[in-house]
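re: ur msg from earlier - yeah i can do the magnesium ion complex, just paste it... oh wait u already did. ok heres what im feeding in:
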Amino acid sequence: MTEIKKAEERSLNFIEEIIEEDLKAGKYKSIATRFPPEPNGYLHIGHAKSICLNFGLALKYGGTTNLRFDDTNPVTEDTEYVESIKADVQWLGFQWANELYASDYFEQLYGFAVNLIKKGLAYVDDSTSEEIAKQKGTPTTPGTRNQYADRSVEENLRLFEEMRNGKYPDGQKVLRAKIDMASPNMHLRDPLMYRIRHARHHRTGDAWCIYPMYDFAHGQSDSIEHITHSICTLEFIPHRPLYNWMIEQLEIFPSHQYEFARLNLNYTVMSKRKLKQLVEEKHVTSWDDPRMPTISAFRRRGYTPESIRDFCERVGVAKRDNIIEYSLLEFCIREHLNKIAQRRMVVFDPLKVTITNFPEGEVEMLTSEDNPEDANAGHREVPFSRELYIEQEDFMENPPKKFFRLAPGGLVRLKSAYIIKCEEVIKDAEGKVTEVKCTYVPESKSGSDTSGLKVQGTLHWVSVAQAISVEVREYDRLFKVEDPSSEEGDFKDYINPDSLKVIGTAYAEPALKTARFEERYQFLRKGYFCLDKDTSEERMVFNRTVTLKDAWAKEKKKA
Ligand code: ATP
Ligand code: MG
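and the outut:
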């Protein structure tokens, strides 16, 4: 597994080193970062990494973080996504200094573009996108300028204004920066700044029909907000010279861009475009389907913000791309849930046990610790009676050696209750075991001295009469392979068909009647669970957040 280090043990990451140097040199009085999502989908765990990094740095160094919606593409963006992004950032435990929208800067950005035109550093090009691509050359051959690059400042100003005023249809003209068609960096070969899109924008409506490109809007927005450290992922390294060129030519606040490795997780995909396909083609039920790698799905599944922040911290800030193991994420949530989850007993696949020496109709209320890991946790009452359920798999008629559960003539302890002995096995016509008759040892009540009795196993159980039936949903990896995006063919060919298992009726101890959404539970010997939002008056639904142990590590070793 990935090396695990706690925050206080680790050395500074390279961005912290830069910030500390900048502050020491008096370059800035305080730092300003931003988280700049495009509102075209729900945030995933990769975004959580970026959120924790940007907000975490500002918290550590006493700066501020803006939430800026990078909403410069009217076609793919939506207010639904804006709302979900805000909810996710807050759930993770962060509060932005300002909620901002790149679209609020459209007028200012337009002004910047006019300035570049006036400086002879931008021109309107009438070429088609195919022509522009062709003229761009290749990384080894220089590109060529066309005749439009020679347009006068006056003509460019007029045409750009006409573009804004809606005189031209989509695709007929673009505004380009005039930089260097022979640059070895393709991004500097007269990059596009504006394109025409007659489309309604989720915030500016029909006010605009030209929209700035990422490379023009992003750095300028950083500068407008006086962002000191603009952090993005490695694929933007080649964009950095352009980022700097724009800021220098416009003579605006000098924001700086720094790049770190994006977070990749195995057995899933991590791009909004792909996640959207999974939702739209109904491979999952929704963006927050608990099998999705979105923040909202992790929340619904029972992950805690603490566990995700811990995970992001342990992953660290790398300068080279790698794939992080899903099991590290699961390690983090287990660590947290072990401390906070209330222990409960739920039988998934019941086998009836009758305690023949326990009086009929009587109920004894036993007490059990809510969480042995937490000294402040309380206790709950657990009813014990003549008729109980245990798991089918916890009984075997002809057990192999080292089967420490229930078998004919054998003893076993029932958690927080008594030691029982299997006296008789009842079967149906087909020979299937339908019931076992046991006796209990009255002086073996949990907490008493039972040194005289040798019992190896402890089972979870419920009392039949008081049990409540609930639905349980168990989740597994969404994909069968570690990196579905790099496999041959479509990534969806590698979806794990067994990623969801529904147990329609499980039997829960009555304390779960009052289960609440914000509570976390450990179903003894089963895993960690939480209440799902599909819960209704008639039916409680529980999600398995994570198993108690890493079952996949074992699977992988076998394979
Ligand atoms: P996707 O390709 O999944 O749609 P994106 O980069 O287009 O992601 P944005 O909304 O533009 O998504 O991203 C907002 C911020 O989150 C950016 O600063 C981006 O660099 C960062 N980010 C996105 N994905 C990851 C990731 N996997 N790891 C770390 N940071 C990420
Ligand atoms: Mg993006």
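cool cool. The domain at 264-344+468-559 is CATH 1.10.1160.10 (Glutamyl-tRNA Synthetase; domain 2). ping me if u need the other ligands too
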